[in-house]
Amino acid sequence: MSVSVPAATLNIVLNGFFEDNSFVSGAEATAADAEIFNALSAAPDASVFPHLARWHKHIASKGDAINSLKAAEAPVAAAAEEDDDDMDLFGSDDEEVDEEAEKLKAQRLAEYKAKKEAKGPGPAAKSMVTFEVKPWGEETDLDELEKMIKGIEMDGLVWAQKGQRIPVAFGIKKIQINATVEDAKVSTDDLSDLMMEFEDHVQSVDIAAFMKL
């Protein structure tokens, strides 16, 4: 997993993400959690980032085991590749091509196909995007605007439970809200355009952070 997030924004992004997720990916800690954990320079302030602090405390409790998780995953992948490499679909080049060899080849092809189908498709590539939506003025009802934003529905799009209010200037606040998207199904440009259609409420839409999961 690659992370491209400014240091000042990382805790905000991760706190929003762990509001709805226990771990970076799946139902248990993985190498991805180890990578994010090691990227943090210090334990987050629980009073400011409660969700991130909860996750950080849980990962920290694993001690050195979280680092060994990263190394433990590599042999599994290598073993799978070795297994595929060792599979001789067509037999030896020196083997005489006869009826029995053709039957054996067909059998191996069928077994290989069945093995691949049994594995099923891999997990969909996902990203977490942090949008910042700036209203026209302080009179804009931000609660109503957030409902409108979260009313945008797409296959592969999941909004965070609640956005944050970030001061801009002169009493104006903008909405910062996270969304988890499946890369193959959801375009961030399309999402931005849909939010800009709320033209009576929205002045601008920016992407504050983007993180691959």
Name the structural class. Answer: alpha+beta
Low confidence ranges: 71-80
Radius of gyration: 24 Å
Number of helices: 7
**Element string (H = helix, E = strand):** EHHHHHEHEEEHE
Could you tell me how far the N terminus lies from the C terminus, measured between alpha carbons in angstroms?
Answer: 6 Å
Strand content: 15-25%
Number of strands: 6
Mean pLDDT: 81
Please bin the fraction of helical residues. Answer: 40-55%
Largest sheet: 6 strands, antiparallel
Overall body shape: flat
Brief overview:
This protein has 213 residues and is an alpha+beta fold. Helix content is 43%, strand content 20%.
Overview of the structural elements:
The protein has helices spanning 7-17, 31-39, 50-60, 65-86, 99-119, 142-150, 188-196, and strands at 3-4, 126-135, 157-159, 164-169, 172-182, 202-212. The protein is α+β, with helices and mostly antiparallel strands. Strands 1, 2, 3, 4, 5 and 6 form a six-stranded antiparallel beta sheet that branches. Strand 4 and strand 5 (172-182) form a beta hairpin. Helix 1 crosses helix 3 (50-60). The radius of gyration is 24 Å and the shape is flat. Mean pLDDT is 81; it is low at 71-80.
What secondary-structure arrangement, pairings included, does this model have?
Layout: E1 3-4, H1 7-17, H2 31-39, H3 50-60, H4 65-86, H5 99-119, E2 126-135, H6 142-150, E3 157-159, E4 164-169, E5 172-182, H7 188-196, E6 202-212
Antiparallel strand pairs: 1-6, 2-5, 2-6, 3-5, 4-5
Which characteristics define this entry?
6 strands, 6-stranded antiparallel sheet
